[in-house]
Amino acid sequence: MTTLQQNYSVDKKGYYGKFGGAYIPEMLYPNVEELQQNYLDIIYQPEFQAEYHALLKDYVGRPTPLFYANRLSEKYQTNVYLKREDLCHTGAHKVNNTIGQILLAKKLGKQKIVAETGAGQHGVATATVCALMGLECIVYMGEIDIKRQAPNVARMKMLGAEVRPATSGSKTLKDATNEAMRHWINNPVDTHYIIGSVVGPHPYPDMVARFQAIISEEIRWQLLEKTGTENPDYVIACVGGGSNAAGAFYHYLDDPSVQLIAAEAGGHGINSGMSAATTFLGKMGVLHGSKSILMQTEDGQVVEPHSISAGLDYPGIGPMHAHLWDSGRAKFFAITDEESLTAGFELSKLEGIIPAIESAHALAVLPYLKAAANETVVINLSGRGDKDLDTYMKYL
Amino acid sequence: MNRITKLFQEKPNNVLNIYFTAGFPNLNDTTTVLEALQASGADIAEIGMPYSDPVADGETIQQSNQVALDNGMSLKVLFQQLEGIRAKVSIPIILMGYINPVVQFGIENFCKKCQEVGVDGLILPDLPMDEYYEEYKPIFDQYGLLNIFLITPQTTESRIRRIDEISDGFIYMVSSASVTGGTSGITDTMEAYFNRVNAMNLRNPRLIGFGIKDNATFTKASQYAAGAIIGSQFIRVLQNSSDNTLYNDIVEYVKSVKG
């Protein structure tokens, strides 16, 4: 991992431009402060880096391939590379972060782990590393998500985690996050909270982004090997909270020749009242410990978003992405449920890869992109679609 | 003088602060609850501004927040209900809630409204201390609003001293590391923590909250601080009450706590 010194990185107070900070009740202050004071020192210790990279290689299976998608490229008359995070152990990029955070939790002397999960990918990745390290694991998951992501619930249980349903509010990722935070408030001393996305109070957004930055670190040398240049013209990733996008963008943030493109979940369409496209529908607000863009009512109540994909069904985005949006550094698209399904089937048939519905949102940007024949597009294929087969089969 | 400051000058012990969620159990109960609190001898009324995602609150207060929102409660409605309240209610009034609805309302506008209706203090648990000090305090001061901070058993001495230095009114001493609604009572570990804070000779009086529910816990907490705060248990009383007995049920409960 290399350290960013430029405009798009977090400042000392935990802000990206006007977004970020640590808006937390006093009960969480000691834990969050402990992380703020120590996270950089711990994760850049040589032995930490050695252990982290050894696990990424031998346990996660990194580097993940950068695959030239021949038939997809032909169809869109450009050069499309897929960063195969779907080939990570557990089936998505989420494990890059949970490996890092579990090592950090051990350094901090924590014995128990709590996590939230939407699609279940982060829950599975957390349960996996807890099994690997022998730590107790509790995962909060929205009651609705438990129903629509049954295979991942079964996997978490098999890995020895306790899955607790979040039954408040919209019963999805937002509420699972609330419950995980409450659990941490109630168990501050022995428990570390592994947040799965680039959200939450500082230093979580920056810490998670640094653990996911391995994605763009690899893209750079892989692309250099394949094309003779480190930089693509476009990097596309889906954004719920935004962890895979943060990782895919990280090493390109300060190179304006690389266009960064974020695909949000448009749901039934941004004007349908059934959407999770935060930058289109939100305004500045505070949720889960940071100031960012938030979907909310005029009275400041958080609204219940909708997306076909549980992993993107979140009313906010990470503060780093809010800043990328606000500054114009990244371009945001709202991809509908239908467009994502179409893209998912298209990739399956053209390339023999079934993507997670989350990742299919990133693929669905291709028809809008109109990239030139000599341009290079990297799409972060953040996860595989096995968990979504029930949803896909309804449309077969 | 601010009503909170005046209260502690006149009554340094056994101060009872009662929390309730605005718009719960019914949208228009706010005035009734406030009048009943004053009539029964509660010293401070803490009105919860309902929020969709109250992360520091346990199930009881979460549900009351949701019911209140479903009933149509909002800051706009609350301020309408509080117009003219000072003709009927003279005890200090505190608004408690999460920062997002306040930010959306507009900080200056919010503070102005608070002053107009006669609010004395604010508890905003997710407002960071530095942001408060740099951005919010000048506005709060301008409108005569005291910001009340929370401390927990894990809050360091230097942080407690900083809070004591930059805030007035009282300090909200959370009895244990937990969300609201626990019923653990007061344990030996808590006593050690209360004694530790008492030995610091702070400027501000303290009220103990979380786990206070009846005369026994209120009396015990009052031995270690200027008084105590009841939240979840009072919400349960409201929940179990009916429209025509609400006033009397509140009076009866508060009197039983005071003993």
TrEMBL record, chain A:
> The Tryptophan synthase beta chain-like PALP domain covers which part of the protein?
61-383
Q: Which GO terms describe its cellular component?
A: cytoplasm
Q: Which cofactor does it need?
A: pyridoxal 5'-phosphate
Q: Which Gene3D superfamilies match?
A: 3.40.50.1100
Its EC number is 4.2.1.20
What InterPro entries would the database entry show? Answer: Trp_synth_b_CS (IPR006653), Trp_synth_beta (IPR006654), Trp_synth_beta/beta-like (IPR023026), TrpB-like_PALP (IPR001926), TrpB-like_PALP_sf (IPR036052)
Q: Please, which domain of life does this record's source organism belong to?
A: Bacteria
Q: Is-annotated flag, keyword Transmembrane?
A: no
Which EC class, in a word? Answer: lyase
> So what does this thing catalyse?
(1S,2R)-1-C-(indol-3-yl)glycerol 3-phosphate + L-serine = D-glyceraldehyde 3-phosphate + L-tryptophan + H2O
Q: Which residues carry this modification: N6-(pyridoxal phosphate)lysine?
A: 94
What SUPFAM superfamilies does UniProt report for this protein, alphabetically?
Tryptophan synthase beta subunit-like PLP-dependent enzymes
Q: In which pathway does it act?
A: Amino-acid biosynthesis; L-tryptophan biosynthesis; L-tryptophan from chorismate: step 5/5
Oligomeric and partner information: Tetramer of two alpha and two beta chains.
Function statement: The beta subunit is responsible for the synthesis of L-tryptophan from indole and L-serine.
Name assigned to this protein? Tryptophan synthase beta chain
Tell me the lineage of the source organism.
Answer: Bacteria, Pseudomonadati, Bacteroidota, Cytophagia, Cytophagales
